[in-house]
Sequence to fold (427 residues):
Amino acid sequence: MNNYCVATYRCYDPKADFAKKAEGIAVGLTVGSWTDLPQARKAEMEKHLGKVVSVEVYESEGTERYGDLTIAYPDVNFSRDIPALLVTVFGKLSMDGKIKLIDLKFSSSFLTAFPGPKFGMQGVRDLLGVHDRPLLMSIFKSVIGHDLNTLREQFYLQALGGVDLIKDDEILFENPLTPIEKRVEVCLEAAREASEVTGQKLLYAANLTGPTSRLAQQAKKAIGAGANALLFNVLAYGYDALHELATDPEVSVPIMAHPSMAGAMYPAPDYGIGASVLLGKLMRLAGADIVLFPSPYGSVVMPREDNMAIQHALLTNTPSDYVFEGFTPSQSHDSAAQTSSLVLASSFPVPSAGISPGLVPLILRDFGHDVIVNAGGGIHGHPMGTAAGGQAFRQAIDATLQGRLLQDAAKDHPELQKAIELWGVRE
Ligand code: 1AE
Fold:
């Protein structure tokens, strides 16, 4: 029996026969043409033929008519890697009119090529020894053109603020002033010094950059120098580059996926790839332990429903969210779909961009404990300095967990008070 990976597309058209369109995709992206084939050839090609799983048409007054078309693609047509899958299901099709890839499910045999995140959310918490609250991350800012001493100083101040993670800015590339192995050495030295004051552990995600052919070597150089996490601009390199790193046994630290370039792919309603596929399922499948994405609250805004869909894709343990279960219950042959939980570890969600302490109640309302609160400008821009910026966030997180209004908690905490005066509160 064939295994299939399944793609769902949202297709906008005022008049199209969506059933016919779905059939055209199923045939066109697999065997090319079907009706013209002689019977003998049909028998041979049957196992390569795509199948329409479902077609749902939505039309109502005042909204554009669209259809959700779900097509199953036989695994036998493509190798077990994300580039081959994406080119099969959305290669040429991505350029063929108003059509957006909104979901993907995989056969259990395809999934076996993807061990997923090495650490996942639980592993990251274990490394830090923090299990009872959301984590806090700070982003290095304005570090281009600076030397190691300046970097060290900025790192120390961020760490003093009580953050759990510090990440490089994604635009800090390999450079002669602060090469990755030197950065790691000085920053982790500063982390140890700050830890004597805060008593906290800290992960530093150094930005892994350079030509694709040298990424693994760079990662190992950074890890050799003591790196305990890596940042990676996944979409600029491709998911397969992440998959290679995540499955390399010597890349023994969590990998944080940055969403750079995602804005070119997910925001249009009728083109591109849905946010939950782009920044959810495929990131987790390729092995990202931590995934950043724009939040609904800050400066680079993503709709809340997209955020919630990404969160679901990163955290769900329900096999049927990822595994295609077959065409009808009686045909269901995919054993992984019937096991009690998904084998992929979950990836830590990080809604980001323009986050300030006054947004913490909203972030925790939507994401609960299982989130990393992440800020750059909202920490460095604090009127009392960078360390106070981190402290204000920790105070906002503690207050929210205790069910206190930030305005009340701020009476006991000048750092939070100043942050609220500058950026306000949204509850
Ligand atoms: C969506 C990515 C956010 C990010 O990488 C970044 O640098 C945010 O900075 P701030 O918090 O907006 O200053």
Q: What stands out?
A: The pocket of 1AE is lined by residues 139, 169-170, 259, 292, 294, 299-300, 352-355, 375-378 (CB under 6 Å). The chain is about 40% helix and 15% strand. The first strand starts at residue 4 and ends at 12. The two ends are 53 Å apart (CA to CA).
